[in-house]
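If you are new to this repository, start here. Below is one unmodified record pulled from the training split, so you can see the exact layout before writing a loader.
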Amino acid sequence: MEHSKLKVSVRESTGKGVARTLRRSGHIPAVVYGSGKAQSLSALLKDVEKAMQGHAGRNGLFDLEIQEGKKNRTALTLVRDIQRDPITGKILHVDFLEVSEKAKIRNKVPVEVIGTTPEGVKKGGILDIVHRELHVECLSFQMPDHITVDGSALDINQTLHVRELVLPAGVTVLDDPSLVVLHVIPPKAEA
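And here is the target side for that same chain:
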């Protein structure tokens, strides 16, 4: 998996006023968690948006180039949380989790439905995506951007469970194997 590089700098002060000042200057506050501690950071908003839209996406790996005064250090991280403005959708804050390439990590991964229109939908049924995210565990470099699910063979009243998913190599779903991911429900009768 490709890593996105992101330059960030350490910030000493925290709080709402500092966050507002950062946002007005085109930066956003961020935090990196790792080694039992948290470190407050700031990053250019345009760089963060570009990295999120690029290949890495939401579950990609980020090489944070952290500027601590005159010295720099690099940290391999994964996005843990993104706070967005509810009206504009603009990124307000990002939490990163420092990871190791040798240790397994857990994260939520979105489900992406692929394939042709399910057989049951062609007969008037409705495709219901019950779970849009799954909890997975794998090595950091194996973390998928999404899990693809093909529901094209589903007929009315048929379901697709977690145990039936085809997963990328090294990825384990932590959710209950009998959990329904999608199903085709019958059409409602007209009154």
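Two things worth knowing about this chain: Residues 16-24 form the longest helix (9 residues). Residues 105-185 form a domain with the RNA Polymerase Alpha Subunit; Chain A, domain 2 fold (CATH 2.170.120.20).
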